[in-house]
Amino acid sequence: MKKIILLLFISQTAIAENFVLSESSLSKLSDDVPTMQQIELLSDSAKLGYLGMNDAFTPSLTASAYYSENKEKQLNRFAPITSPIKDFSVGVEKPTSIGMKLGAKVFAQQTTNSFVTSSTTTGISAELAMDLHKDFLGRITKTELDNRKMEADKADLEKKISKKAFIQNLRKLYWALVANNEAQKITKELLVTANQQVKQAEDRFKNKVADSGEVARYRSQVAARTASLISLQYQQSNLHQRLKEMIPSLASKTIVLAPYNLDETVNNVLVCSSMLEQKTNSPMDFTLYDEVVQILNGQEQNQKKIDNLYDTWDLALQSEIKKTGKEYTYSESYSDLSSDGRNAYQVGLQLTIPLGSRKKDTREVKEIVNKKKFKAEQEANLAKLEAYHSQMIRSVTLLKQVVANQKINSFNLAKSLKVSQKKYKQARITVEQLVQEQDGFLNSNLAEIETKLNIINTLLDYFSVYTETPCNLNRI
To answer: Does the predicted TM-score (pTM) go above 0.85?
Structure first.
């Protein structure tokens, strides 16, 4: 009884570890895999760069307190020692994206020396720092911020493209497993036939109707087909391994194919490709790469503006206005500030002019580097769009012709094989001729499966670039 329970438990555990593989089940598992997380990470890093630059324009509260006491000897009454000194302030600072920095604070300071005791100053102040040329009204800062925003938008588009490409790679693995399964089924069927032929040959040999050569030839055929089947099983194992590497949650599962219809999928591919053949030019509304190229154009123009100002002169303004009250206590000083506060102004200009030609040389190199960088990326994307569209149409057109001829070949080989089997029974052809017919039929069927897989893969590759293609096959 215990053995029966144990066997039932093992059987249930084995069933529980099976994973029924289909395109839809793959799609559901694809969200939480390392590759998808890496794709998300690249996009999030670009967003972090944009958000990090925005953080620089966040208002900040500043506070400081200072106390100093000095016990030095006073050498004469005209050189007083000021001690203690008490100083504190609280303020708000706000950098902006238009090349300005604003600030406001309240402050108080109290000092004592040999001439005056507890001299107290309280006040409020407002500060303005502004770039008057290089970053006037934020022409550099806003441009850099715009570039970061476009980089984040581009990363978001590339994330969608990369995710779609990853899913297409998973689907290619799935259909490779389907093709492998179909090839195994055909090989197993012909292996069964080969084993039957060996038995028949051995019976004829016992009855002295056949010679040992015929038996050996059939046994050779069994060995060859067994080797082909083992080779297909090895390929299947490698495909399972690749799938489990891409989706680690399948690592401990036994992969079992769900029911599928290879011919129906191939027909859907041909319907989709027929629609795409009508597009003489690359269908930009079927892809996100055109938006990526537009963003790259915008980034290039922004970078030119920034580079053009790299070696130019600059003029900066620093200004402050204060209102202070002064008395011998904090309360009296504050009252003086409220009733009779005195104003003070401070304005400064700072001019910076680069000397020599180093910065100019650097600017010229930066312009060349950035031009090549953006041009290369734009042209690579546009070339990919053109190549994938035109090549897909050519490839599918050729593969359709291959499939049509392979079907004719398989149909005629099947007819020929039936005739050859009758001829062999009538001793009109040799065993070698019959085996050759059978091998030809097997190879024709395997080649047809391989071509169907190539057609599916061609369109799946197309979907990895033209991610928005309105085909049912692209909606998995």
So the answer is: no
